[in-house]
Amino acid sequence: MASMEKAIIIGGGISGKLAARVLSDVYKEVIILERDSQSEGPSSRKGVPQGEHLHALLHAGEHGLEELFPGITDKFYDSGAVKINSTMDLSWFHHGAWKIRYDGGYRTTLQTRPHLEWHIEQYIKRISNVVLHYNQVVEDFLYNEAENRIIGVQLKTGPILADLVVDASGVSSLTSKWLGKRGTHIPKEKVEINLSYISKQFALDENYQRNWKIKMVYPNPPQEKMGGTISKVEGNRYIVTIMGYHKAVDEKEVLKDDNGFIELSKKLPKRDIYQEIEHGTPLTKTSFYRIPHIVWKRFDKMELPKGLLLIGDTICRIDPVFGQGMSIAILEAITLKKLLQTGARQIDSAAFHKKAAKIISPIWNMVITEDFRYSATTGELPFGLFIQQWYAKKIFLLSSQNKEVYDAFVKVMNLVRPISSLMTPRIIKSVLLHTFWKKP
Question: How far apart are CA 422 and CA 411, in angstroms?
Answer without folding.
Answer: 9
